[in-house]
Structures are given as C-alpha cells and as structure tokens.
Amino acid sequence: MNEASSGLNLFSLKDRIVVLTGATGGIGGAVAKGLSAAGAIVGLNGRRTEQIEDLCREIPDSFALPFDITDEDAAQAALQGVVDRHGHLDALVCTAAARDRRGFADIETEAYRKLIEANLIAPFHLARNAAVHMIAQGSGRIVMMTSLAGDFAMTGDSAYPSTKAGLAGLVRTLAVELGPHGINVNGVAPGPVATQVNLPVAEKPEWQAMIRRSIPLKRWADPSELVGPVLFLASDASSYINGQIIHVDGGASVKMFPMD
Question: What CATH number is attached to the domain comprising 16?
Fold first, then answer.
C-alpha cells in the first residue's frame, strides 16, 4: 500500500459523486454535511424542492435532487440525470424512511403497505437503478440505513421493525449479487437517535428510563454520530467489507438483560 492510499486518505471522498436520499431528515442532513466535508459532490434528495434547495445553499458541492423515492420512474430519471451530468455515480446512501408507531391491532393494512413502499421497495429500486451505472463502471458503494429495530421488537411499534428487517436482508442479498461487479453493499443500524422527529418521545420519562436501563452509554445518539460509519462504508477504507450491518447503538444490541 503506497502513501497515497493509506491513513486518512482512505477515508477521502474527494470528487466522488454520491446520491443521498432523505437529506432533509435529522440523520440525512448530518450525513449530507459529512459527505461534503469529506470531499464528495452530493446529490441531496427530498420531496420538497424548496427545502432541498435551501439545504444545498448550506452544503458545499451539493446539488438538488427533488423526487419522491416511492416513484420508481422519477428515481430512475434522477439517477440517470446524475450520470448524464457528472459522468459516473460512485455511491448511493439511503437514509429516507417512514415511521408509524402503532400496534398490530391499530395499524391499517394500507398504512403498512406505505411503510413497505418507503422503507423497503424504494431502496430496492433505487439500488437496482444505481447498480446499472455502477456495473458499467466496475465499482460503487451502496449504504442502507437499517435500524436496531430490525433485530428487536417492542409493543406498540409493529410495522417499522419488519420493514427494517427486510432492508437488512436486502443488504445481504445485494452484497452477494453485486459484489462480483466491484460494488460493496452494507448497512448502518442506528439505535435511538435524538432527531427532531424523535424528540417528543425522547422527552418522555418512561423513555428516558428505558434508555438509561437498556443502553450501556445511557444516552440517545446525536445524528452526527451516524456520519462516521457512513463515510467509512462509502470510502476506500471499507474496500473489503461487504454485506455487513454496522450497529451504531451505544451497545444496546450486546446487552442481554437490561435489569439495572
């Protein structure tokens, strides 16, 4: 390994073309800033054009990609447009997700279908369209934001965990199918993250007690703490990592019985 490909240079994303879904979310926004700081040229996706354009003005070397991830035709056109404009697509990072915290008896079938569309089917067709371009160039990175909820379950949140478990399975499947083409596919599984959406839950005393009891670090993650793992998986530093899910959960997934 020569000096240019060692040390911190391994983590550089200089001039890499990256498409990031869910850029206006708490995790997505933090990751967008991190990708840009590492040198990437980042296509920021979200449904609201004005919101995405405002974010682009905050993040250097970024460009707006407003489309609904559940619209396969719009997603395909957007990715083709990125390649037409920049000549290549180096990484796809999927952080967009929907959430519906209701129990099994309360969530309607149609609401469950919408979660599956956003959390599993959209990443599937985004990855498939991105892979067409990555296969042509013989390299690429796909990073999916899965969840600790994909491995565990809790009362009152019946639908979301199954979509994230499916996404983890998709990561493994794509890693096997796309690996021979030089494409690495991995996932990041956050535990509880103190995003704006989660703050009303985080402030409840019962949730604060649960966090102290079940997470060895005894706190919520800040969205910025998801940036490092994503940069790692999008960079040359993870060149021989494929089909893995990195848990970023404060140790929750290794604590057997949260009795204290």
Answer: 3.40.50.720
pTM value?
0.94
- What pLDDT does residue 53 have? 96
Section 59-87 average pLDDT: 97
112 is catalytic: no
Q: Looking at the domain assignment, is residue 200 inside a domain?
A: no
The CA distance from 234 to 237, in Å, is 8
Mark 3-24 as b/e (b = at least 16 C-beta within 10 Å): eeeeeeeebbbeebbbbbbbbb
Distance CA(99)–CA(101), nearest Å, equals 6
Query: What is the pLDDT averaged over residues 38-66?
Result: 97
Candidates 112, 160, 220, 232; catalytic one:
160
41 domain-assigned = yes
Domain of residue 66, residue span: 3-192+223-249
Residue 22 domain flag: yes
The answer to whether residue 86 is domain-embedded is yes
For the purposes of burial, counting CB atoms within 10 Å of the CB of 46, is it exposed (0-12), middle (13-18) or buried (19 or more)?
buried
Whether residue 230 contacts residue 35, with contact meaning beta carbons closer than 8 Å, is answered with yes
Q: What is the pLDDT of residues 13-32, one digit of tens each?
A: 999 999 999 999 999 999 99
Question: How many domains in the chain?
Answer: 1
**Predicted confidence (pLDDT) per residue in 82-110, tens digit:** 999 999 999 999 999 988 888 788 889 99
- Mind listing the pLDDT tens digit for each residue in 200-228? 888 888 888 989 999 999 999 999 999 99
